[in-house]
Specification:
5-stranded parallel sheet; two-stranded parallel ribbon; 11 helices
Amino acid sequence: SLETGMTQMGGHGIAYMTGDSPIGKKETYEDTGAVLSRMVDAVTARVNNRGQIAGLAQNSTIPIVNALDDFAHPMQMLADLQTIAEKKGSLDLSGVSLAYAGDACNNVTYDLMRAGIIMGMDVRVTAPPTPDFLPEAEVLTECAQLESVSGAGTARVFESAEEAVAGADVVYTDSWMSYGIAGEEAAKRLAALQPYQVTTDLMSHASPDAYFMNCLPAMRGEEQTAEVIDGPQSIVFDQAENRLHAQKALLKMLIAGNYEAACDRATSPSDDS
């Protein structure tokens, strides 16, 4: 979506695969950020941990966009919030209830909680009651801090999927299987998460006009049934499309804003004049 968006807006996206590059080994993330600042107008980075994003940004003079790390997925949130706003017919999402069911120990869940609170939403997370599947304590602490702001929403964790989904305006899930999970470990995860599968029965506990969301890719028969993701309440492909539109808007704002700021600095009288 990022490369497509840049092309549609007349720019050029360069795909740089970190897996076979010297970044983080022969060259630090800090040095990479400094060098890229001399060559391109913005960087979007999908990385393994938040420290790598911080490293890229440390010496950068251009926008560094977090496209995904182990603790957050902010660009997905822009698309998700846009999709919900479109379906609800308002940019004001105060009081909108979103239930997330499944594996809640991941970046998407964490950012749904954060973004939901900021937007005044009621976010309800339900997952197996073990550390392997629940949000980290650091995330819950951060959410409590966000909730202290006037007009903020809430984020709560439920053991019962039915209780979390009751009356919800949006029901959301994500993949149960990270890349590389197989064999006995995969079987254990499937067994633990099965009570949190989004089925037509679970959707019946939500609002009658509730929407179903999944940030994709999705596995029918795992985190949701085919009847749900292919059913009339599913908006997963609108959600996927909005990754393109939301990220085009973000890139335009950041790149144009950075260019205008640079022009202002170049034309402003110096302190010595």
